[in-house]
Write a structure and sequence with these properties.
The complex is a heterodimer of chains A (414) and B (116). By secondary structure, chain A is an all-alpha fold. Among the domains of chain A are: 1-99, no CATH class; 311-414, Tetratricopeptide repeat domain (Serine Threonine Protein Phosphatase 5, Tetratricopeptide repeat), CATH 1.25.40.10. Chain A contains 19 helices and no strands. Chain A has helices at 10-26, 31-48, 57-75, 80-89, 101-115, 122-132, 138-145, 149-165, 175-197, 204-222, 230-243, 269-282, 290-303, 312-325, 329-341, 345-354, 364-378, 381-394, 398-412. With 116 residues, chain B is of the alpha+beta class. Chain B is 28% helix and 35% strand. Chain B has three helices and six strands, in the order E-H-H-E-E-E-E-H-E. In chain B, strand 3 and strand 4 (62-66) form a beta hairpin. The chains are: A mainly alpha (414), B alpha+beta (116). The A-B interface holds A 1, 3, 5-6, 9-12, 14-15, 39-40, 42-43, 45-51, 53, 135-140 and B 12-14, 17-24, 26-28, 30-31, 34-35, 38, 46, 48, 76-77.
């Protein structure tokens, strides 16, 4: 007998597909019923596949979801009214067609646009997208975003309620609003990716999954002609560059490793190449976005064979452009670091003095970390230690804290 | 060689709130186990049971419909296997994938009747 394995995350991704198709047919009013029905199908697959995995697992799920539709129709107690409505909404496309590959993808994209609808609260968008398209469970979302499961539950409930209350349609935005809505979708995907990339979650697996989800969603966006644009390609490029060095960001003891000390030979080059390709494609379109600049900065970093070879002038120029579009404190801090690398500490100080650390909220420790770097570059070790001490008291994350303490202790021995 | 029945008792996956990812992982473990046993020619057959439970009990033959969620534990399925003795059968049961969920395997030898 042949050893058959199921591709990674098949169940999770199928969950998103099935929920999307069923929602397209039955609408959000029946969303809870849909979720339960899909969950049951998975329980069934889990048992049925124990001894024999179907030859085409994906097709199995498609057929299963078709059968679910029929079950659901019975359950929903299809009165005449209901059937007429269904026929109406599916009139342009026959029932069977809805289960064809292209239409399944179309349903998934509709789900993305619904999850990222501007009427939804930003936090709810992320949780809802991870759940409905990503197939993450409540506890998995909680673990990934480092929040309580109850908080996730609340966000999901609120998202569902908003969608039903505001009567949000399960469809693509109209042509004149498409670009604007697409930008919100990209923003949500970017946030999901960043949750993975910048998170200090102890499990690399969790971080990888969030980054992977970001990449997968962007790929899905790029699969549709109308959604291809400079921004979507640039975002994809940025995520490829970042993902290529995900494994080298943390050592076996969960200590973060900064860019300077990462093992560059372990960066994943196929992803870097994908990043370059996407960045090139982004230039074929007229629109220009912050993702273009961020991708270009990331490209400069992966381009340098050693930390010392980094083209800081180029990076500074890109940051300045970013700053022109969106003046924010995190970019200022990055610029300050670039000035320190360029041995222009006075410029770094100028920028730091303009930043008010409280604006960074939970991330205010970053400000003190950069300030310490500045003092260190001017040779004022005492002031650097003081700044690190402040940073240590402000940081919540244990991995970051350990990193800062280690840094301070090195200075203390000087 | 004697016949044994491995009876799987515990909670249903859906009632445990497993995510699709976790279900896939479970499925993979069960699959690996069944492949292993099949290769060794241990399994005679096995079935999984539907989680709907109807109990009939007592002299009045009282019928009660129970859902899996109401019951702490239900029999989820069984395997009929061949093994040298009870210890060997228990060794085979070590690979049962759901111990970490608090589920149980009951190992029972099939009674052989004397034919006089």
């Amino acid at each position: 007998m042949q050893e058959q394995q199921v591709i990674d995350h098949l169940f999770r991704h199928q969950y998103g597909k099935m929920v999307s198709i069923l929602t397209r047919i039955f609408g959000f009013k029946n969303f809870e019923l849909i979720e339960d029905a899909v969950q049951d199908t998975f329980a069934k697959a889990t048992v049925q596949w124990r001894t024999k995995i179907p030859e085409n697992p994906e097709a199995w799920f498609t057929t299963a979801s078709k059968n679910r539709v029929i079950d659901l129709l019975r359950k929903i107690d299809a009165d005449k009214n209901r059937i007429e409505k269904l026929n109406y909404s599916a009139s342009a496309i026959s029932f069977t067609n809805l289960f064809e590959k292209e239409e399944i993808q179309d349903s998934e994209l509709r789900m993305i646009f619904t999850a990222c609808h501007p009427e939804l609260n930003a936090n709810d968008q992320i949780a809802f997208a991870l759940k409905t398209i990503g197939g993450f469970s409540t506890s998995e979302i909680a673990a990934a975003l480092l929040i309580k499961p109850e908080t996730v539950k609340k966000r999901l409930t609120r998202a569902k309620k908003t969608i039903v209350d505001r009567n949000i349609d399960f469809r693509f935005p109209s042509k004149d609003r498409l670009q604007e809505r697409l930008y919100i979708v990209l923003e949500v995907i970017y946030l999901i990716f960043n949750e993975g990339f910048h998170s200090n979650h102890k499990k690399l697996l969790v971080r990888k999954e969030l980054c992977g989800e970001g990449l997968r969603l962007t790929k899905m966006i790029l699969s549709k002609q109308e959604l291809r644009c400079g921004a979507s390609y640039a975002l994809f490029s940025l995520m490829c560059f970042h993902s290529s060095r995900l494994e080298t960001k943390i050592d076996s003891d969960f200590n973060s490793i900064n860019l300077k000390n990462q093992d560059r030979t372990k960066w994943y080059f196929p992803l870097i190449n994908l990043g370059y390709n996407a960045l090139e494609k982004a230039e074929d379109y007229l629109d220009f976005s912050a993702y273009h600049l961020e991708a270009a900065i990331a490209a400069e970093h992966v381009k340098a064979k050693t930390f010392e070879e980094t083209n800081w002038e180029k990076i500074l120029e890109l940051y300045s452009q970013l700053q022109e579009n969106d003046k924010n404190a995190v970019i200022s801090l990055s610029m300050a670091i670039v000035f320190i690398q360029l041995q222009q500490p006075e410029k770094a100080l100028e920028i730091l003095e303009e930043v008010c650390p409280s604006i960074l909220g939970q991330r205010s420790y970053l400000y003190y970390g950069v300030k310490a770097k500045y003092y260190q570059s001017t040779g004022d070790i005492g002031a650097a230690i003081n700044s690190l001490n402040t940073a240590i008291t402000k940081v919540a994350n244990q991995v970051e804290k350990a990193y800062l303490i280690k840094k301070r202790d090195v200075l203390l021995t000087l | 060689m004697k016949d044994f029945m491995l009876i799987f008792i515990g909670k249903e996956y859906t009632d445990l709130g497993l995510s699709p990812e976790q279900m896939q992982e479970r499925m993979g473990k069960w699959f690996a186990w069944s492949q292993k046993m099949e290769k060794q020619g241990i399994v005679k057959h096995g079935e999984a049971l539907h989680p709907v439970v109807r109990q009939i009990s007592g002299p009045n033959r009282t019928v009660t419909d129970r859902t899996a969620a109401e019951l702490k534990e239900i029999v989820g399925g069984y395997y009929m296997i061949k093994a040298k003795d009870l210890d060997a059968a228990c060794a085979i049961a070590q690979d049962f994938p759901d111990f970490d969920l608090g589920n149980t395997v009951e190992v029972r030898e099939v009674m052989v009747f004397d034919n006089f």
